[in-house]
Amino acid sequence: MSEKLRWGVLSTAAIGLKKVIPAMQRGQFTTVAAIASRDLAKAQAAASSLGIPRAYGSYEELLADPNIDAIYNPLPNQLHVPLTIAAAEAGKHVLCEKPLAMDVAEARSLLAVRDRTRVVIGEAFMIRSHPQWLRVRQILDEGRLGPLRAVQAIFSYFNTDPTNIRNQPETGGGALYDIGCYCIQAARFGFHEEPTRVAGVLDVDPQLQTDRVASALLDFPSGHAVFTCGTQLVPYQRVSFYGTKGRIEIEIPFNAPPDRPTRIFVDDARDIFGTGIAAETFPVADQYTLQGDAFSRAVLDGTPPPVPLEEGIANMAVITAIFDSARSGQWKTIS
């Protein structure tokens, strides 16, 4: 295998064309060698605009390409698992967009495939490669906040376009799938453990039939996490971690800009006026470039990817339980 991992991209999804592919093209260990679409003209147009050498008119053709080492899968949610399985069966490593699947049972089906094919499968939570999140992990591990007791997150935007896949239930649309997964990831990341039970409530759009606001309470062995996410709310995002001696707030936790510095705020809680708040600033970084390099290094060096398959399954278990709780009106334990 070459020193750079040779990537193929399944579909001309906007997140790939606008964010992930250009970022990966700047990577130290990544090269984007091919792109596929069910519409050859779309694939050719994307390849031409982004300088990608090969374009295919079907996913199967791309997966059969012997000069492709790994696949980036940004397809709609209902196609994440089927195409990840197809890629693994073709001997390709897979970085799959979040959420990993439509439910936890579907996500678990990837374990046997991965173990049989011996490829690397990871979930594309790019935030986990960003320096601001790595710094949060360091501060938490140092014990500067004292024991972590609570995590609070909000993530929202406004989009009512019925043609957008985020507003289509059959493609896994809705707030919880699309952005609630980030809030769950943040809570699990903070506590470094899994919740034992969850309670969820959803506000479903009567026309679109997707959850436009989703809120949940996650009960961890060490504390609680609460979050609200929405597809029909004012655009906003924040994550805060609260310990017994201090707190951390991430200013732009999820859509960290690739063209300007980012900040976290560390508060030693000396008073309620914020005089103990210290801002830490991080240089310009593209979390999609960092993600691609980190996954590629994992494949090249034989080390775990930033977000291994087991992590994706654990996140999916929480999503599934929140949906179950919202439907039943009861707490749901995490299996």
Compact overview of the structure:
This protein has 335 residues and is of the alpha/beta class. The chain has helices at residues 14-25, 40-50, 59-63, 80-89, 104-117, 131-142, 175-191, 287-301, 309-328; strands at 5-10, 30-36, 54-56, 70-73, 93-96, 121-123, 148-158, 197-204, 211-219, 224-230, 232-243, 247-250, 262-267, 277-282, 332-333.
Q: Mean pLDDT across all residues, rounded?
A: 97
- Main sheet strand line-up: 14-13-12-11-7-10-9-8-15
Residue fraction in strands:
25-35%
CATH fold topology of the largest domain: Dihydrodipicolinate Reductase, domain 2
| Derived structural class | alpha/beta
Distance between the termini: 39 Å
Secondary structure: helix percent: 25-40%
Architecture of the largest domain, CATH level 2? Answer: 2-Layer Sandwich
Radius of gyration: 20 Å
> Which CATH class of the largest domain?
Alpha Beta
- Strand count: 15
SSE sequence, one letter per element: EHEHEHEHEHEHEHEEEEEEEHHE
Contiguous uncertain segments of 5+ residues: none
The global form is globular
Largest sheet data: 9 strands, mixed
